[in-house]
Design the sequence.
């Protein structure tokens, strides 16, 4: 009758693990695994033109909606557009670093609808969800530059409408270089290295080149591999580990050993060094240079910033730069025509484009926008476009869904070499093998 | 004279000897370790506080300084005058309090059942509950997201409360089971001899005795709900988001992070938990260690 018994009796305790318990546990974990497998199947397929009807409400998902300075301008612009069209636009926002994961998850769960704002690096993983519409018929006559349109294409399909297009390139401090007696722009890596040595002679407080040495941003090294002639990816296989990549790594390691680049530098630290006049060169996109100006105690810092073409291995080579930009994609569904019309208006209507440029300093993607006096009068941006964006290319890894893991694999190996744990040959070969493992 | 001198010097000698002994036995190593660990543990909190009162123009100064050159409370003012933050605060309070209550109520019945009743499968049940703790929460999130999307439950308080409770239940059940194990069966049997039902015995006799355990598990569940980032970020939209994901969305951008305001907001987020911990720490420590020793 009395089912209450003492737990203090001398018998096997309830917390002892029996074989049956283990089996039960295995079953539970197996069920969990099946659940995960069910959620992880690929959803890629053929893209369709936007369907549905115009004049419908939709959701606009954008990390810019939570970022100052464009936040306020963007909210007002979206609100005005919705009022003008007589539709409702719901806003959804994630922090930049969380946005891709959230959108992929939502997309796989069928919860992402309407217009979504992507970094151009994120296109492949989003295409793999199989939910994006083909927007080519809406982009052909809107005046976007060919280079900008290319940032929204994948496998020949126009999934994205370009919103801003630029690059990540080398920015120099004219004042500091002048102090070091440099009155020319180094065009080859040999000249560049000589210039760095001259800058180093200014004193130990100065980091000649605030190149990325922290693993989070070591993907910047990919551009240096390309500069030395490595394809990085060719015919669907990673070529890292080839002679050119090893030569690039050897050079980078030499800069590190000789104190021409410094340890523990990532983008934010590089901006801080630059804003305080303590480095002659660093890598950034136009949007980041605005942060330098904001944080600098030097009110004239903007006029001292000179965007320059990355030095080449041999005179006559094409300077390398990493493309950077944002695109708008539209998920296929009832609201996709409404969403596409909004995305096209936001990125090509001249007043709207210039309003965004004024709010964010992000360059437009239409020829009309780029040629407008407001953009042309921005000397820094004009020089950036001419010297850096003109020859920028997307990362070779961006065609793969696993691009982020690939960049991390390369970064890990570069760091191992910089720290002296591997030789350049070992590091680059290991990186190549790791990336090829992710491809196969 | 000699005798007097010896008599007077004897206590001094004993004192000197005591001093030498105490010097010999003063545990300098452990104390140094404690101070070292204390500084290590407090450093992030110190940095949080310092950054929150540093003016924007100084926060990126390089090399960093450990003491601010000037102090401002503008960052706290900005946070306090932001109406959205109070909406997120309300979401956090609602979700965390209900999670704590639900976790305690559910786990107290389950813990009591497993501790004091004998029936087939209770061990399996106990380990089955624990198994949910063995998978990374990010993996479970994918499955939960799909389930909640199917049932149209995303972007609700309910979805967060259920998710958080899923994670708090195992530890709460194990914690309370240990607590109930320590309660002598004689008390329960005496209650029954006096004619009390199982229900009355549990509520009138056992639960008052188990109050420290209930407080400890409730506080644990509250903190789990209050601090969660990834579930609150993924399962809800802007209207139902709690403070941790909302603050990240608000202050961390693609190119820049507003560290001073983020730190000021973080201080305010941490305060309720710190206050609750200080107020209830006696119960918390007692509750957590209650099942540790059987006797």
Sequence:
């Amino acid at each position: 009758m009395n089912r209450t018994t003492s737990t203090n009796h001398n018998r096997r305790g309830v917390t002892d693990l029996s074989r049956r318990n283990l089996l039960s546990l295995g079953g539970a974990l197996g069920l969990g695994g099946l659940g995960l497998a069910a959620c992880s199947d690929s959803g890629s397929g053929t893209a369709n033109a936007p369907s549905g009807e115009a004049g419908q409400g939709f959701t606009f998902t954008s990390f810019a909606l939570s970022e100052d300075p464009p936040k306020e301008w963007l909210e007002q612009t979206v609100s005005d557009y919705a009022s003008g069209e007589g539709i409702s636009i719901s806003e959804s926002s994630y922090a930049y670093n969380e946005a891709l994961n959230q959108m992929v998850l939502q997309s796989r769960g069928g919860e992402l609808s309407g217009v979504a704002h992507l970094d151009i690096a994120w296109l492949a993983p989003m295409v793999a969800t199989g939910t994006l519409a083909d927007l080519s018929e809406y982009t052909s006559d809107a005046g976007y530059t060919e280079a900008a349109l290319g940032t929204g294409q994948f496998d020949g399909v126009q999934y994205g409408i370009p919103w801003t297009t630029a690059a990540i390139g080398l920015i120099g401090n004219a004042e500091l270089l002048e102090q070091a007696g440099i009155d020319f722009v180094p065009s080859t890596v040999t000249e560049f290295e000589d210039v760095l040595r001259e800058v180093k002679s200014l004193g130990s407080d100065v980091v000649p080149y605030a190149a990325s040495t922290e693993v989070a941003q070591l993907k910047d090294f990919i551009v240096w591999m390309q500069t030395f002639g490595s394809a990085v990816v060719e015919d669907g296989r990673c070529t890292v580990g080839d002679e050119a990549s090893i030569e690039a790594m050897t050079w980078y390691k030499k800069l590190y050993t000789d104190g021409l680049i410094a340890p523990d530098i990532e983008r934010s630290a590089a901006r801080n060094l630059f804003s305080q006049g303590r480095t002659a060169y660093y890598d950034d996109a136009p949007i980041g240079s605005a942060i330098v100006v904001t944080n600098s105690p030097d009110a004239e810092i903007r006029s001292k910033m000179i965007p320059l073409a990355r030095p080449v291995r041999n005179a006559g080579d094409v300077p390398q730069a990493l493309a950077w930009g944002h695109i708008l994609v539209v998920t296929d569904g009832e609201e996709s025509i409404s969403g596409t019309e909004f995305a096209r208006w936001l990125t090509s209507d001249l007043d709207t484009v210039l309003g965004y440029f004024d709010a964010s300093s992000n360059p437009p993607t239409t020829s009309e926008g780029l040629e407008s006096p407001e953009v042309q009068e921005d000397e820094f941006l004009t020089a950036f476009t001419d010297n850096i964006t003109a020859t920028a290319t997307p990362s070779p890894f961006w065609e793969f869904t696993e691009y982020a893991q690939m960049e991390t694999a390369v970064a890990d190996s570069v760091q191992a070499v910089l720290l002296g744990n591997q030789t350049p040959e070992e590091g680059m070969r290991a990186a190549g093998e790791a990336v090829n493992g992710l491809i196969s | 004279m000699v005798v007097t001198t010896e008599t007077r010097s004897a206590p001094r000698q004993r004192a000197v000897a005591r001093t030498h002994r105490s010097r010999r036995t003063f545990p300098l190593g452990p104390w140094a370790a404690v101070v070292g660990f204390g500084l290590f543990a407090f450093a992030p909190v110190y940095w949080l506080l310092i950054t929150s009162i540093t003016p924007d123009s100084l926060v990126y100064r390089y090399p960093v300084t450990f003491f601010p050159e000037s102090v401002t409370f503008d960052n706290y003012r900005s946070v306090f005058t932001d109406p959205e933050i109070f909406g997120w605060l309300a979401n956090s309070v609602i979700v965390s309090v209900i999670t704590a209550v639900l976790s305690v109520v559910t786990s107290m019945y389950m813990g009591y059942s497993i501790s004091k009743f004998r029936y087939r499968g209770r061990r399996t049940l106990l380990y089955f509950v624990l198994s949910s703790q063995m998978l990374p929460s990010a993996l479970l999130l994918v499955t939960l997201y799909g389930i909640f999307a199917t049932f149209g439950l995303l972007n609700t308080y309910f979805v967060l409360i259920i998710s958080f409770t899923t994670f708090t239940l195992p530890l709460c059940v194990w914690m309370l089971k240990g607590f109930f194990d320590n309660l002598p069966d004689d008390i329960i049997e005496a209650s029954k001899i006096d004619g009390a039902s199982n229900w009355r015995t549990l509520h009138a006799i056992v639960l008052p005795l188990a109050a420290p355990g209930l407080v400890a598990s409730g506080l644990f569940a509250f903190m789990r709900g209050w601090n969660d980032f990834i579930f609150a970020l993924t399962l809800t939209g802007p209207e139902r988001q709690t403070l941790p994901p909302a603050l990240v969305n608000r202050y961390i951008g693609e190119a820049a992070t507003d560290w001073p305001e983020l730190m000021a907001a973080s201080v305010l987020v941490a305060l309720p938990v710190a206050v609750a911990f200080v107020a209830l720490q006696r119960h918390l420590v007692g509750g957590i260690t209650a099942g540790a020793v059987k006797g």
